[in-house]
Protein 1
Amino acid sequence: MIEAAMIWNEPNNKSHWDPEIDPEWSLFAQMAILAADAIAAKNPELTKVLGGISPIDPFFISRMKNYGVLDHLDAVALHGFPLDWNLWQIHEWPEKINEIRAVTDLPIWVSEVGVSTFGAEEVQLWGLQRTAELLKGKVERCQWYSLYDLPRSWEATTRHREAEGSSYYRHYYMGILREDGTPKPALEEFAKHTPDLGLVQWFHFEDPRLDEAAAWMRRLGVKSVRTGLSWADRFRPNALDWFDRQMQALEDFDVTVTFCFTPEHRGIAPHHTSAPLVPEEFAGFCEEMVERYAPRQNSGYVSRGAKSARLLGLESRASLGAG
């Protein structure tokens, strides 16, 4: 069951939104409002969440408030990795949350928090224990990142690999399962905190880990799962078949679906971090996904007709200047 729709992922992080194209985030604000309204039109009961911000920045939340974005949303989300990337210590979590509470009355989710095993697996175990102490019951939703390590043959989603040095490689060690599926010491500890702690797992297109991941989540007692549906992937052959498989595999959980990633041919710049040429197209993608996977309960199944296709620009890629 999809219970929430998250609009973008880390919009204030240059790995996910290009500030050179949109330095004031006004284009993002316009796109987010259009997307939130499109989601609400299809299912007003679906919780709409501002994509988890990283870094945790009250000024960014205030900017979104001033643009009117928060008027269209039901919650804001935060991402924090103080033992790996952030310039603050893990015990500062309550202060970081209070900084956001000071600028918005919306519920606060921590939709990504985690600790890598880059240095030692024991660090992750301790970090999970301490994170649970600091966050369980203190925010409306808390989701651990992640179930699996990122396979070393894949690239991490970041735009500044060359500048990150060893920090880049921490992306590959965030799981409580190793790449080969074997458990790390923190896995047993994580199971002690479910269902209070949810879990984040991003699935790549046609990810072979999908079914085994769902089995592990059930085994661990997970109730809340966050994943993503990529607007860029929507243009791949057989995209809807993959989306259908992903959503079916996760149907036992309360799912937060993150809508993000600009198709290269629909961005102001040819990159998934770019603001779109036509923000209504992203709203159309959100509308189509809600219509398909989280329709209004009292309306029954809603046709996946031509309207969404037109909004997405899928009827004629040539008419949209596809390259």
Protein 2
Amino acid sequence: MHILLTGGTGLIGRALCRLWLGQGHQLTVWSRTPDRVPDLCGAPVRGIGRLEDYGDGPLDAVINLAGAPIADRPWTHKRKALLWASRVTLTEQLLAWLQGRAQRPQVLLSGSAVGWYGDGGERELDEDSAPVVEDFAAQLCGAWEETALRAEELGIRVVLLRTGLVLAVDGGFLKRLLLPFQLGLGGPIGNGRQWMPWIHLQDQIGLIDFLLQHPDARGPYNACAPQPVRNKAFAQALGRALHRPALLPLPGLLLKVGLGELSGLLLGGQKALPQRALAAGYAFRFTAIDTALAALFKDAA
């Protein structure tokens, strides 16, 4: 299979490249730094700086995961514009290019996030649930999904992946938490009652591969483990995994002052459930947070 990836040099993209190279697929990554692609993603992976550089060769699937990190810095007007451009505008460029191709891929799997629902409070959220709050993250994910869905007009099957917090020790949000927790300075965020929909990296790439290979899969899928946890329970589990206390809370007021609108992303959450993935037959390898964290740190040792 010939697969084109955006966001291929990120945490999830690199893991997908390792998996699919092992399966014998032909991979191309559209990147701002195409010269670095073979080093980051694997020597056989081709990097291109422009979509036009792909050429007229066969293309079976597009995996659209590009997007600037959403929680790295406060949401100033400039930052919001970058977040929008790196997701919505980039996807628009991708669709324009696909429309001009004589041969189009069978499937577009496009990234999204559980932030599509907004802060869900205590509601259980499956893929049939409507958005709860129209905050910036929800608006961003909504526009991202609506843009990707236009590929259906080109005869392309579209899968939307609403991803939770991806657990990995070599990237993502967990890597940023490790140092304070290792120093015994970790703890819950705010009151710790907000729900955290999480997924182990192995299940994230496993689910993407599963949906790619199942021609009946289309529309939104929550990419999160079947057992979401509250933030306080997650902090306690991470403390146990690192054999450190996790008792120092990060006050919500401090976050609001320091991060502004972005603080809502950390102080809110979603009790998201992967109903459609389970109904389709995907078997999660990691369903309990303690087991997932133990496996991560065992593999990293």
Protein 3
Amino acid sequence: MAGTLYIVATPIGNLDDMPPRVAATFGAADFIAAEDTRVTMKLLNFLGLKKPMVSYYEHALQKGEGILRRIEAGENCALCSDAGMPCVSDPGEVIVRDALARGIKVVPVPAASACVTALAVSGQDTSRWVFEGFLPVNKKQKRERLAELQGEKRTVIFYEAPHKLRTTLDDLTAAFGPERSITLCRELTKLHEEIWKTTLGEAQTHYAENDPRGEYVLVMAGAPAAEAEEELTLEQAAQRALELTRNGYAASAAAKAAAQGTPYSKSEVYKQLLALQAD
């Protein structure tokens, strides 16, 4: 009889937030699939447990087949990420998808999630929101992703590492303007936890002068209703696209972004953009 794949959330910072069921699941599992075995080892030491572990991090997902075979042979596996709910913006999603396709029982063992925790304390609109996770590293892909979010009315949540925060704030400010509201949540539940609601422009200025430290969740307000619904002329839409090209967007991506929320197609804005560039 096949075993079970448990998707186990771990504390996002403070180990005192460990739910009893999470600890019990680790204790009952035959082995643990960890994003980083070194991080999970610290957690197991805190719980006083010793368990066989295998890593499933992004560049070792070929091990996913071995994990699934062990479960099919009757072992129970507890899969966890370094912090929070695994398989969300995490390579473990591949193992879950394949497990379900093979008829393996998958059981969630929930606890804190950094994105929901940050949203709850952000002071931004929580009624409708969209999770973007980590933005692409590739500059072109990043600009295209941000272009897709032009006119997005829902609150938008990003994850970011400290060494990339300045660049991301620069890109967000260029895409959405310095007045857009944003809440930066740093080191949630840890000793140096910080929650700062400000604007993109102020955050950009602050971190130009101060080194980012710790892991960040960025909770950005959606486009104001008036801004999202404002009817622009074709020339105004093209002018918006022109501004985006000056901030590094390709003409096609800029036209696509500027066309959102308007009655004009991407091709119409693109043609008018070329006309402006020719002037």
